[in-house]
Amino acid sequence: MSLPIEPQRPQLMQNDPFSQPAYTDSFYDAVGGHDTFVKLIDVFYDGVATDPLLRPMYPEEDLEPAKRRFLMFLEQYWGGPTTYGEERGHPRLRMRHMPFKVTPEAKDRWLFHMRTAVDALELPALYEGTLWEYMERAALSMINSPSGA
């Protein structure tokens, strides 16, 4: 008796809007898994680290704990490891962001740095659009103050 042969997963062609793998378990796998999300987080926090409006919202001197939390959250959200839920429970994003004054300007700055990070991934258009649409919705939902005044 012969064992069934598992089909090979096709490689993604960078920047090809019609390129997508035929066999994937999740968005997380389709975009490259852990390494892709690490790059997203690293590029994003490089911008946050020097942003005069956003940096004060991260009370820890070292951004590594914030990077780890965001990485775990995004990986779980997109179908990767469930470490976030195992360590921190339900995300409760609005509740966790309530101590910080998230204004429309802060949202725009956050999206500016996230746009740089998403672009750095050079994902096929379908995946880039899916990821970016989520980031825009998430950022908009975090606003909890009308202005910086």
UniProtKB/TrEMBL annotation:
Signal peptide region: none
The protein's required cofactors: heme
InterPro entries xrefs: GlbO/GLB3-like, Globin-like_sf, Globin/Proto, Globin_bac-like_CS, Hemoglobin_trunc
Protein name in the entry: Globin
SUPFAM superfamilies in the record: Globin-like
An example molecular function term from Gene Ontology annotations: oxygen carrier activity
Keyword Iron: yes
Entries under Gene3D superfamilies matching the protein: Globins (1.10.490.10)
Key words of the record: Heme, Iron, Metal-binding, Transport
Organism: Pseudarthrobacter chlorophenolicus (strain ATCC 700700 / DSM 12829 / CIP 107037 / JCM 12360 / KCTC 9906 / NCIMB 13794 / A6)
Assigned protein family: Belongs to the truncated hemoglobin family. Group II subfamily.
